[in-house]
Structures are given as structure tokens and as C-alpha cells.
Sequence to fold (193 residues):
Amino acid sequence: GLNLPEGVDAANGLEGYLAPGEYQLRRDISVENLVQTFLDRFAGELTQDMRAGFERQGLTVPEAVTLASIVEKEGVVDAERPMIASVFYNRLQAGMKLDSDPTVQYALGYNANKQTWWTNPLSLDDLQTDSPFNTYLYAGLPQHSISNPGLTALQAVAYPAQSPYYYFRARCDGTGTHAFAKTFEEHVQNACP
Fold:
């Protein structure tokens, strides 16, 4: 059997715990050894300090990994991930829904027309997709990860920025960075022309 890292709950599968990155592997590696290699990298990245960070935020390892999986898909620029995490923490603390597009994209699954797993842009109909993963419909964190977060996303969840922001959206300049807003009105003003 697999040797799971401390605190990992694999009841819903291993999504979230398979550390992305570059690996040098033997061509004849078994599936079990391959998966264990991913899990071992994840375990090595999850330091006691990061675990303490998750605890300070009131999250278990599975909850932290789930939030990090959303931060992973929302953030393009590593330096912004702690700010994105802070927005989600602010929303959770205020009892707001996360309203995260990647959770809807995950719920939709493979889009055969566009030949992608991550439908973009999403339609208003897409945002109404009834799935426990749709954070536009359901409050709190989804039941498990929607991706395998990298180290910077996990660190962002362990050590989020402190911010007054509740909203963010992609800037219109193609940089992959985001405009952050305190109020919905400001958020609307940040829309692309």
C-alpha cells in the first residue's frame, strides 16, 4: 500500500497530494512507485512550519490543500498568491461564498467542444452548474481539491497576506496579474473596458 503523508485524508482520492514539478524517473517505474514519488515530494514540501501556518488559519491539511488547489488555479503570478489566499480567507470569515471560476471549471469537467478541462470564459449558465464544487452556489470549501497545488500555492495558504480585499479579477493587460477590490462596486469598476 501507499505511505501517505501525515494528516492526508485520501478518502476522496489523491487529488491535491500529487506534487507537481519535474521528476527524474526510471522508464519501468510501477504505478504505485510513481504515485508514492509524488506523495513523498508533497510530504517533503509540507514542513512543520507550513502545517503550523495551516493550523493558525484554522484549517486541517486536507482543507488547506483544497484551498491551495483553488489558489493554484486562480493565480498566474506566484508573488500574487498570498494576496489571492487573503481574499478567500476574508470571504470565508465574512460568510461569503468563494465565487471561484476554477471550481466551476472543475465541476464542468472536460469540454469536448473546446477540447479543454478548463472552460474559459464561463457562461452565466456555467456558473449555475449544480455541483458541490460550484463555489458560486455553495458556501465554504469544496469537498476536496480541484488541482494539485504547487509549493507557492501551499505557502500562500499557510502564510497569506493580510488585506482588506474581498474581490479580484484578471487585469486587462495580459500580464496574468489581478486587480483587487474591497467592495463589489470597485470590483465592477475593475472590469475590462
About this structure: The radius of gyration is 17 Å. The first strand starts at residue 167 and ends at 170.
